[in-house]
Specification:
The complex is a heterodimer of chains A (175) and B (152).
Chain A: H1 2-25, E1 47-48, E2 67-72, H2 77-91, E3 96-101, H3 105-115, E4 119-125, H4 129-134, E5 141-145, E6 151-156, H5 164-173
Parallel strand pairs in A: 2-3, 3-4
Antiparallel strand pairs in A: 1-4, 2-5, 5-6
Chain B: H1 9-30, H2 43-46, H3 52-62, H4 81-95, H5 100-111, H6 126-149
Helix pairs in contact in B: 3-4
The chains are: A alpha/beta (175), B mainly alpha (152).
Chain lengths: 175, 152
């Protein structure tokens, strides 16, 4: 019994080493999922981000039909990369609204001309307030909101072509 | 770099090399930086609150909130746009009379305990809080054994 006790510190140390080794091999988690999934869209009413698009308010997101809310910015490079996928989703009949983070309307206008315009409504979020309220930690992010205004799905980062089916599925599931 | 007619061959090459090196260093520094917007920082991103007591409260909170885009820094330490907006959010809410812990909870509700550098007491972090107590107790117990054996 005493002999066993003598080996205990070494055993504890070995467990520690294995834990550290496993931790080192696993990349640090960099994606921060929103805790708002399954909850109601926080209340907000944004100013219009660009001429030609009505502004976005939380009330527009509980109009009975699911919608996509794309959190983007004209200064964000991955937002340009996901533009074709948003256009593809729009062609599939998915209504998409935008929240433009820390953006100027002339920059948003240029961005839409250059990279395509999948949006119905676009709200300006100059101090990232709606982004914080959504639990979004960067651009781009895309939320699926059902007809009652409940957030059903969050996609973090740019939508790659291989992500389109899962977003379509989340959209269908929100119907 | 080749438009330096007054310099002679070797010197010119060395200048070119230095410039190339400087450019390489700049590129290395520039590449991982996250994109920043063209909008000026929010009013309270870099400005202190007028009331020093409120500013101290806001400051203490900001030092224990994690920057979401830089991840290794607190929002008080980061120059990222998003950290600036979070500082503005904290300062405005403190100025409006909200308790710092309420603001922390508001953020934790959205981002999880990850956003806070102050670990909550919950089953998962229980060992973290209990470990010091257990270790001190273990140490005392060991020391007691030693002291007891001494007198022969």
């Amino acid at each position: 019994m005493k002999r066993l006790f003598l080996w205990l510190p070494l055993a504890v140390f070995l467990v520690f080493l294995v834990t550290v080794a496993i931790g080192l091999r696993r990349p640090a988690e960099t994606e921060i999922r929103s805790r708002m999934i399954g909850k109601f869209m926080p209340d907000f009413a944004l100013e219009p981000a660009v001429a030609g698009h009505p502004p976005l308010a939380a009330a527009d997101l509980r109009a009975g039909k699911p919608r996509l809310v794309n959190v983007f910015a004209s200064w964000c490079v991955p937002c340009k990369a996901e533009a074709p996928q948003l256009m593809a989703l729009k062609r599939r009949g998915v209504p998409i609204d935008g929240v433009a983070i820390r953006d100027r309307s002339e920059d948003v206008a240029r961005f839409l001309v250059e990279w395509g315009d999948p949006f119905e409504r676009i709200g300006a979020d100059p101090a990232s307030r709606v982004q914080f309220a959504l639990g979004s930690s960067g651009v781009p992010e895309t939320f699926v909101v059902d007809g009652k205004g409940v957030i059903r799905h969050q996609h973090i980062g740019d939508i790659r072509p291989e992500n389109v089916p899962e977003i379509l599925a989340a959209f269908e599931a929100a119907k | 770099m080749s438009r330096l007619p007054s310099l002679r061959g070797a010197r010119r090459r060395s200048v070119a090399r230095n410039n190339a090196l400087a450019l390489a260093i700049l590129l290395v520094l520039a590449a991982p930086a996250f994109a920043q917007s063209a909008l000026p920082p929010a009013r309270y991103a870099y400005a202190q609150l007028e009331d020093p007591r409120q500013e101290a409260e806001a400051r203490a909170l900001m030092e224990t909130l994690r920057c979401l885009v830089c991840q290794g820094q607190s929002i008080a330490d980061s120059d990222a746009d998003m950290a600036g907006d979070m500082r503005a959010l904290v300062r405005e809410r403190v100025a409006a009379g909200e308790r710092p812990e309420a603001i922390r909870n508001w953020l934790v509700d959205r981002y999880g305990a990850w956003v806070s550098y102050k670990p909550p007491v919950e089953p998962l972090t229980w060992p973290l809080w209990a470990a010091p107590v257990i270790l001190v107790a273990l140490g005392l117990w060991l020391a007691r054994g030693r002291f007891r054996r001494k007198p022969r």
